Structure formats: structure tokens, C-alpha cells
Amino acid sequence: MDYKIFELGNCVLQSGATLRDAKLAYKTYGNLSADKSNVIVYPTWYSGQHYDNEWLIGEGMALDPEKYFIIIPNMLGNGLSSSPSNTPPPYDRARFPNVTFYDNVKLQHRLVTENFGIEKIALVVGWSMGAGQTYQWAVSYPDMVERIFPFCGSAKTSLHNFVFLEGVKAALQADSAWEAGWYKEQPTKGLRAVARVYAGWGFSQAFYREKIYIQQGYSSLEDFLVAFWEGFFLRRDANNLLTMLWTWQNGDIGKTPGFGSNFEQALGAIKAKAIVMPGQTDLYFPPEDNEYEVKYMPNALLRPIPSIWGHFAGGGANPVDTKFIDDSLKELLAS
Amino acid sequence: MDYKIFELGNCVLQSGATLRDAKLAYKTYGNLSADKSNVIVYPTWYSGQHYDNEWLIGEGMALDPEKYFIIIPNMLGNGLSSSPSNTPPPYDRARFPNVTFYDNVKLQHRLVTENFGIEKIALVVGWSMGAGQTYQWAVSYPDMVERIFPFCGSAKTSLHNFVFLEGVKAALQADSAWEAGWYKEQPTKGLRAVARVYAGWGFSQAFYREKIYIQQGYSSLEDFLVAFWEGFFLRRDANNLLTMLWTWQNGDIGKTPGFGSNFEQALGAIKAKAIVMPGQTDLYFPPEDNEYEVKYMPNALLRPIPSIWGHFAGGGANPVDTKFIDDSLKELLAS
Q1: Rounded distance, CA B312 to CA A31, Å?
Q2: Are residues B149 and B56 in the same domain?
Q3: d(C-alpha A235, C-alpha A47), whole Å
Q4: Which of A12, A122, A197, B99 has its CB 3.0 to 4.6 Å from that of B167, i.e. a possible disulfide?
Q5: Torsion-angle region of A102 (φ positive above 0: left; ψ -120 to 50: alpha; else: beta)
Q6: What local confidence, expressed as pLDDT, does residue B92 receive?
Q7: Which band of pLDDT confidence, cut at 50, 70 and 90, is reported for residue A229?
Q8: Cα-flanking dihedrals φ and ψ of residue A16, to 5°?
């Protein structure tokens, strides 16, 4: 086991439900400096676990463990932190409560403050749903977070993005082996269907047109669909996916207590210096949504990744995109 | 019954299979002139039937039945022409053979020539898969077709479009009630999943962002997903959808006999004068694919529909887009 568990006890969620004996799985990289001024928080994404974030960490990179103390908290529902798959009855499986980005970040804040005694965070950074948590950090704890770098994500899940996820969910739930969440074995037909639905959304039209998957070592389009996409989702637990999907669909910093669902006001309350980085060809987090956000953020810059990798421009598999992200992270951290 | 059936007898398909007692359902509008020079052919789209095309026909419109003799042939697999749902055993249901755009157009050509004695076609026009048939007409019968107007479609199904359709197919087939095509009742869970998968693709991000569905009379996003999208697909037969989906996924005028899969050569063999009209925000037939095609077509103009309606800019529900299409059709017919 390469990670630690922070025990949170009973946590009342935004919905009113209580997550009992809640656990946050996390991993840290580097050392906390004496003045605790070198902290980076780097939340995970839809179904990703802490090690899936490591491509952006390394010596000489912006997220350099020689310089920074980097904390990767695993998102609730991702199978390592409290999730349908690892919570004991009666809140297990299909009964796992709905959790929001606000809930996730509230628990992460306890890890950071109670466990490490940290008072300032130099940077929060995250991809996709990790970006959703990044915005949430800046809204929930505006005086604590100095910089944010959300990439390929949004502060509020757009209606189109919501609809895309309805398709993902419906494909999974069409499999009768899902049994409304009380399956004995994973509903693999549904998970494979999710994979094929997701495949068209994850990468751009141009990515497929130019057959980048061949350069990536897949032998054909079908091989890419099976080896990459089906392989990706077959490793996941269906209820975990549905829990995180609910979090994603309901993402909206405007729902942070105190803002009365006023999205623009919540954006305006962000004090952190920000670089907001969409993928230029991202089909479900298109740059237009971030463009709107940045207009309301006091100290933010929009900088799209000029890439045909779609959402996966932020996935770490393309060195050119990774360098673009890393360069901007260095710039933000130096400011 | 507002349509007629043309009996084709036994038809050998491109795959080598024989479609026995093949039937083409069609409807005509207006009168054939004495010199038979006023013919327009207007094929149908994925799951559409002839009456679904009628929004583009009318007095004072380009497709004016006072001036033109308009033939709408129903695509094979659409439930009216030979389809899994209406073919007797042994070629019924899951055994219905694969048909290509080439096969469809070959049968339509027999209708036009054998039944009506027509030698020249002033215009072939079609939306989406109807555009696929339009290109095919121009390649299969270059000396017969004077003008083509494919809108929101392509001459070759792109790899990304293929992947989108893999998602649609997988969502349907995840429903065990589908029973590999031998269902006793329609697999409605799968059809509803298809609807939700399709919803994100059919309209653009901006269409949802601006909540155009509310202006269209739906009371909420969920109401749009159920009333429009699920309603749309619940009326369809699953095997019919899969037959047409195969036709779509395998669309490629380069596979017309004589071209040896040389797509660019097939485009170059088109003699018809063409306006090619993508939807500017179409997510599965993006303008870039048509832009490539037009470079190889001797007599073609690219003219995107400036609309946020995505693929459905060509669906007839938005009067502004319909006028844009109709105006260009008038221009093409006058030339």
C-alpha cells in the first residue's frame, strides 16, 4: 500500500446524510518546509487514483518534490477514499450517499489542517473533476489558497456536459446485471458500453481523424476501443462510477453555502491567482465555459491547450501537452 | 398508407448476400414534366421516414411541388422499405443482411429509371445519412445527376463518427432484452439509453447552454430528454436501427465498384454541381470533413450553416436554419 488513510469519523454531508467513519486516502510527495509554505494540493479525477496523477510530478517539473510538499487526496467514490465499494453496510454499494465537490473539499481541508497543521496552500491544481475540486477549494477557503490551476474542467458542470453523462449513466444502467446497484459481479456489458460511449467524447474528432491512437501503440481503432477504453472501465466498480458521476453532474461552486446558488458571485469570491486551462478541442469541457468563468474571476487568466487531444490533452499521455501545462504551472508558481 | 411500394425482386447486394423480394417504399410530390427534366430525389436519414422530409418541401420553397417532381425513397432498414422488421423469414430480424449506401442507391436508381423512365435528375438532396446517399448518387451515376446538395453528412464516415456510433450501438446491446436481435418485445431500456447517448451528440454545447429546448416547448432538460429523445427512439425497432447504423458506419463512396477504395478518386469523379452544407457546430459531421471533400470535388462549394443547433441545424425544427438551407437550394437549382 503506497498511500495513507486519514480517519474523519462521522461527517455530515451537504445533502444532510452522514458519512460514518469516513476515510480519506492520500499520498504525499516531498517534505513540508519548516514554515509550511510549500504546499500543493492536487485532487484526483473521475475514477482516477493518486498514482494516476503522478505524471505531472517530478524533479525539474513545476510540481517538484524537491521544492514542494504535494498532497494528493483521493476523491470520495474513487475506491480508495470512502466509496460504495469499501463502505460497510448499511451505507454500502447502492446506498452510498451523494457527495458534492463541497463535501470532498471540506474533508480534504480537515486532512490538510488537522493532520498537517497547514494554514496556507501555495497551489491547488487538478484535471477534469480535479479541476472541479480546485475551484471549490478557492471558493470554500479563499484566504487559504494562494493560486489555482484548474485544467480541462469547470466551476459548474454545463448542461451539455450533464447530458453527456446521462448517456454514460444510461449505458451502464441498461445492463440488467447492474441490478440497481446490488450486482453480485460487475455489470461488464454495461461497463464496456460506458467505455464505447466515452470513447467518442474523450478525444477530439481530429484525434481520430489523424489516428493518433496508432502512434500511441494501438494496432487499430477496435484495438484502441478494447485495450484502452474497455480496459479502462472494466477496472472500475459500477457503483463507484455512479457516485462520482453524481458528484460531477451536480458540480457548481454557486451551491457553496453562503452564495445562494449565485454562480457568478461565487466566481467573484475567488481570491487566488488563477490560470484556467481548457483543452482547445475538449468536447465536454469546451473553452467557452471557462471563458465565461474567467470574466467573473478577479485574478484569472484563460490559456487553452492548443491540442487535438480533446479532454485528454490534460491526461498526461502527450508530452507536448504536458510541457505546455507544466510551463504554465511554473509561471503561476513563480508569480 | 400515404406511400407506394416498388417491387424489386431479388437483389444481390454489395456484400454478396441476396435481398429477396426487395421493396422500396417511396412517395412523390408534384408532377413529372413531359420532358422529365424536373426531377428531385430526396433520400431519408437515420430512422427517418418519407414524411419526416416534408418540412423542406412546399409552395414557394426551393423544393416546390408546383415546379418539381420530388421523389422520396425510404432508406433500406427504415421500417417501410425492406427492413429487419418487415422482411419474412429466413432473412428477417437479426438475419437481415448488411446493406451499403451503394446498395440503397442502386435500388433507388431502378425505381427512378424502371418505374418512371427518368434519365436525368436535376437535384439529389439529403440530410445526414440522406447526404451519404446523395454523394453516392453522384458517384454511382455521374452522368445522370446534375446537382447535389448534401447537408450535415459526409461522403465517408469519419473514424470519430464511427466511434460515436459504437457508443450508440453498445448502449442498445447492453440491454439483455435485446437478445442478440431475437427479442420478443423491443428492448426499451436499451432504446432509452440510445436516446440519452444520442442527446449529447445531436445538438451542440451552445444549444444546451442557451437552453433552446425551453424555447422549443420542453419544460426542463429532463423533459427534453424524455419527451423528445426517448420518445424519438422508443418509436423505432432495434434491429432496424442496427441495420441503418451498419450502413452509416460503413459509408464510403470510395468503396463504389471501380474505385478500389480510393476515396479522393471517387470524389473527383463527381460531375454534379454541388453545394456541400455542414452544420457549423455539428459534433459528428464536423465541417472539417466536408472541407476536405470539397477540395477533391471538381464543382463544389462549401457553405456551413451558421447555427448552434449542431447536427439538427438540418433537422427542420429551426426556421432560421431552414431558410438558410432553402435559399442555397434555390441558388443551386437556378444555376
Answers
A1: 55
A2: yes
A3: 10
A4: A197
A5: alpha
A6: 97
A7: very high
A8: 100, -15
Nearest Cα residue to B308 out of A286, A16, A9, A55:
A286
- Tell me, yes or no, if A83 is annotated catalytic: no
CA B13 to chain CA mean position, Å: 19
Mean pLDDT along residues A314-334:
98
Band of pLDDT at residue A75, cut at 50, 70 and 90: very high
Indicate if B71 and B206 belong to the same structural domain.
Answer: no
In chain B, what residues touch A207 (CB-CB under 8 Å)?
Answer: 160
What are the residues whose beta carbons fall under 8 Å from the beta carbon of B88, sequence distance 6 or more?
A: none
My answer on whether B186 and B279 are in the same domain is: no
Distance from CA of A168 to the nearest CA of B (A): 7
Q: What is the pLDDT of residue A1?
A: 85
Cα separation of A72 and A102, whole Å? 17
Parent domain of A217? 161-244
Query: What residue in A sits closest to B281 (Cα-Cα)?
Result: A283
Q: What number is the ipTM of this complex?
A: 0.95
8 Å CB contact between B221 and A162: yes
Mean pLDDT (chain A) is 98
Claim to verify: residue A52 and residue A172 sit in the same structural domain? no
Contact at CB, A189 and B206, closer than 8 angstroms: no
Rounded-to-integer distance, Cα B274 and Cα B314, Å: 17
B8 and B85 together in one domain? yes
How do beta strands A123-127 and A147-151 pair?
parallel
Share of chain B above pLDDT 70, in %: 100
Number of domains forming the structure of chain B: 2
Chain B CB within 8 Å of residue A12 CB:
no
Question: What pLDDT digit, counting tens, does each position of B19-34 carry?
Answer: 999 999 999 999 999 9
Q: What is the pLDDT of residue B79?
A: 98
pLDDT of residue A304: 98
Beta-strand ranges (E) seen in B66-223 are 69-73, 123-127, 147-151
Domain shared by A150 and A85, yes or no: yes
- Of B220, B244, B268, the position where a domain reaches its end is B244
**Is residue B125 within 8 Å of B325, Cβ to Cβ?**
no
Q: Which residue carries 493518433 as its cell?
A: A212
Q: Within the 192-221 window of chain A, which residues sit less than 8 Å (CB to CB) from chain B?
A: 192-193, 195-201, 203-209, 211, 221
| Set of cell numbers at residue B334 | 437556378
**How would you classify residue A61: left for phi > 0, otherwise alpha for psi between -120 and 50, otherwise beta?**
beta
The model's pLDDT over A151-189, given as tens digits with 9 standing for 90+, comes to: 999 999 999 999 999 999 999 999 999 999 999 999 999
Q: Cell 461522403 belongs to which residue?
A: B155
Mean pLDDT value of segment B273-285: 98
Q: Which of A237, A282, A289, A321 is catalytic?
A: A282
Active site residues of B: 128, 282, 311
Q: What is d(CA A167, CA A13) in angstroms, rounded to the nearest whole number?
A: 27
